[in-house]
Amino acid sequence: MTSDPFGRRAGKSLRARLARLRDDIRDLTTNSPSRFAVGIFVTLILIFTGLYSLPAAAADGQRTPFADALFTAVSTICVTGLSTVDMYSHWSPLGHLITYIGVNVGALGVLTLASILGLVISKRLGLRAKLIAAGDSNPMRVHGGPVNEGQTVRLGEVGQLLVTVALSTLVIEAGLVVLLYPSLVLAGVDPLTALWEAPYYAAMSFTNTGFVPNAGGLTPFGDDYFLLTVLMTGVFLGSIGFPVIFALWRHQWHVRRWSLHAKLTLITTTALFVIGAGVFVLLEYDNPATFGSMDAWDTTFQAFFLSAMTRSGGFSVIDIGDLHGSSLVVGSMLMFVGGGSASTAGGIKVTTLAILALAVVAEAKGRQSVEVFGRRVPSDVQRVALSVVAWGATIVALSTIAVAQITKAPVEDVLFDVISGFATVGLSTGLTAELPDPAVYVMALTMFMGRVGTVTLAAAVAATNRSQLYSLPVERPIVG
User: Fold this and answer.
1) What is the DSSP letter of 372?
2) Which of 115-119, 138-142, 287-291 is predicted with the least confidence, judged by mean pLDDT?
3) Could you tell me which of 5, 293, 309, 477 has the fewest CB atoms within 10 Å of its CB?
4) With contact defined as beta carbons under 8 Å apart, do 45 and 448 qualify?
5) Whole-angstrom Cα distance, residue 90 to residue 243?
6) Do 284 and 253 contact (CB within 8 A), yes or no?
7) Pick the residue with more confidence: 419 or 469?
8) Is the dihedral of CA 175, 176, 177, 182 positive or negative?
9) Which residue ranges does UniProt annotate as crossing the membrane (predicted)?
10) pTM score, two decimals?
């Protein structure tokens, strides 16, 4: 037998190239994990755009226009729930399966997903990768600097956190399926059809997406309080965030042992849920198109349901376009806040609002530091909270101006849908389905920036941090 030196040489060359590619990816995951995270989401969106463009994915067997395929891919991966097509009638069973898989992948979260893939690629979690995984529970991890370990998950617990992410998603969605299936069957859904609709509704509630698998959506179940309560429970569990689920799993009802992050998330989420429902009752009780035709119990329940869904759930029983303008403003405010950090919800996050509110109270009382539950919140966390709000407001303002200029639609409708996209909520006044292609691209970019997160996006674009070894003279401008 004769040897083949050229074949061996080609094989070595290929292995060398693969090794270099592996090293490059490993360097990217450790040296710039935020850019790697953004790259992962962009890649997923492109893949799912291609999948949605397949003729087999559409019910009519025709290729879906690129703008609609791209928008649906962004909405799916970013677990938003907005759509430019009828999600039930436009897609084939394959298209619905693609949506179901996409929302579960996107629900893992940009930072957690990047950490898991980085672990698969490098076979281990390096220090920087652990920092970015821990960053899911504290955005300051992205920026470096001293962070109180008591406020977040310690590096040694990151592996447990990632396991919690996967297990909680599987267990919670399975539990929701068990509760939803008999309710759907009792509501008249065919038992075989319910075998598909129950997992679909479970995924859409826990991921806070809001797509529906049937033609009428939730309208046929408008008076099924058990089913709607199960959906609200799924939305709540998805919106509080994996770090909070992790803390509750570890410490259960030992409230004193909960992290500050968990306490602020649960308290602020509950407060906004109750306040939002109360405001909706006051504003809509005399609106015949929404709550005006309901009795007191129905009005109260539907107000709570609407309050929960504006936090990022995306389901709706009433037509959002029928709400008063004042209710649309309140809904926009709730959507802008969103849910918890490292959750399937979007928005600026409830902890951001809590930190800013505590800072305002501390300033009003003349305190030099922000203190809560026996802990002091460092100033760098307050600066990040302020930055998140500023960036979020800027993105929403620019997108609203662009879409309003393109569509010439009423500003209140545009603002509501833009914030719904930015906060990955999925509620719409009906405007999104009628957007021209240029506005579709603007909304898709808004959804992407809202889901990836303003802090992560800024960190991905910025250059590597450099230490400044000097300090400039202090001068105080007049503020206020």
Assistant:
1) E
2) 138-142
3) 477
4) yes
5) 37
6) no
7) 419
8) positive
9) 36-54, 97-121, 161-181, 225-249, 261-283, 333-361, 381-402, 439-463
10) 0.84
